[in-house]
Design goal:
Largest sheet of chain B: 7 strands, mixed
Oligomer: heterodimer
Radius of gyration of chain B: 13 Å
Strand content of chain B: over 45%
Number of strands of chain B: 11
Structural class of chain A: mainly beta
Number of strands of chain A: 11
Shape of chain A: globular
Chain lengths: 113, 113
Amino acid sequence: SQQGEEDPQALSIQEGENATMNCSYKTSINNLQWYRQNSGRGLVHLILIRSNEREKHSGRLRVTLDTSKKSSSLLITASRAADTASYFCATVPSGAGSYQLTFGKGTKLSVIP
Amino acid sequence: EAEVAQSPRYKITEKSQAVAFWCDPISGHATLYWYRQILGQGPELLVQFQDESVVDDSQLPKDRFSAERLKGVDSTLKIQPAELGDSAMYLCASMTESTTEAFFGQGTRLTVV
């Protein structure tokens, strides 16, 4: 079963524009993570935001978390063709010793040069 | 840089045959996951290990799938007999509990014909 739902399913933008992807989840979380997957490859961890954090930055990435709405967003600023990939949110549930990592269905981002 | 190793990268097998995948996690990572990813969808958890113990295998089709991590290090996922619907990418990941960031291997692309 999948915890999260990403929105939109697919996004196409011009190089230099910003890309925003959203994720909704169902249960209480310890943290929420975003991963990137290039076609046919494994996933790469991008950024983690804990349940007591509201916003986090890493380079051109900005993540927000709204636990009251059970939602998160990932913003990629000044996009590049190399950002073309699928992006997934994943949640770790609250509760001591639980490291279950559940993924959403992903957003496929295409950045046009 | 430490990586999660998976083999083989690609596997073509006939239906009703047995197939096995191998994963070597990053040294020291107690948590190991096997995920199945159908094209265009997010990874779905098949089994989660904590050291050599199974923590969650609720989504593992136990009539045909088995997984083991005998010494709490590397792991094997087996399918017997393979069915056409098993065609997918099989991803292995390991996690360090200090960060709950998961590291993925490159995956095994299985095609059942």
